[in-house]
């Protein structure tokens, strides 16, 4: 873009505006590059899941996604499913969430599905 011809001396409004414009021309690209770099680095590091941030520590780790499906007819009168991912009987709750909650201060518990009794 065409640049203003800035006077080299004498303080006046035009000199002030030229100085401001020169600073903006320098600062804006640096600020944009810094913001873009921060955004890309944040996205990169947030996509890297560390073992500490994982919920599933041991269930079917060789599978890309752990999914269980049940037919309602097969559940019976009551089923208790683990939501803490610590159960040795996963997907069923075995009470391990109590120990997990005591050790971590967490408050997770099972999903209980039961039929209404008439
Ligand atoms: S053992 Fe995981 S919710 Fe009970």
Automatic annotation (TrEMBL):
Coiled coil location: none
Cofactor: [2Fe-2S] cluster
Subcellular location per the Swiss-Prot or TrEMBL entry: Endoplasmic reticulum membrane; Mitochondrion outer membrane
Transmembrane segments: 20-41
Listed GO biological process terms: autophagy; regulation of autophagy
Database matches in InterPro entries: CISD1/2, FeS-contain_CDGSH-typ, MitoNEET_CISD
A cellular component term, taken from the record's GO annotations: mitochondrial outer membrane
Membrane topology: Single-pass membrane protein
Keywords in alphabetical order: 2Fe-2S, Autophagy, Endoplasmic reticulum, Iron, Iron-sulfur, Membrane, Metal-binding, Mitochondrion, Mitochondrion outer membrane, Transmembrane, Transmembrane helix
Domain Iron-binding zinc finger CDGSH type span(s) in chain numbering: 65-103
A Pfam family this chain is assigned to: zf-CDGSH
GO molecular function: 2 iron, 2 sulfur cluster binding; metal ion binding
Superkingdom, natural source: Eukaryota
Subunit text: Homodimer.
Family membership: Belongs to the CISD protein family. CISD2 subfamily.
Known role: Regulator of autophagy that contributes to antagonize becn1-mediated cellular autophagy at the endoplasmic reticulum. Participates in the interaction of bcl2 with becn1 and is required for bcl2-mediated depression of endoplasmic reticulum Ca(2+) stores during autophagy.
PANTHER family listed in its UniProt record: CDGSH IRON-SULFUR DOMAIN-CONTAINING PROTEIN 1
Protein's name according to its UniProt entry: CDGSH iron-sulfur domain-containing protein 1-like
Protein's organism: Sinocyclocheilus anshuiensis
């Amino acid at each position: 873009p065409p640049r203003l011809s800035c006077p080299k001396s004498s303080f006046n409004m035009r000199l002030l505006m030229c100085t401001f414009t020169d600073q903006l021309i320098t600062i804006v690209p640096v600020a944009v590059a810094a913001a873009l770099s921060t955004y890309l680095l944040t996205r990169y590091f947030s996509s890297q899941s560390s073992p500490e941030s994982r919920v599933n520590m041991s269930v079917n780790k060789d599978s890309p996604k752990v999914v269980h499906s049940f037919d309602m007819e097969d559940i019976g009168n009551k089923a208790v499913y683990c939501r803490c991912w610590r159960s040795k009987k996963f997907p069923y709750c075995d009470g391990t969430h109590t120990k997990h909650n005591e050790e971590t201060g967490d408050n997770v518990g099972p999903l209980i599905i039961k039929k209404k009794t008439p």
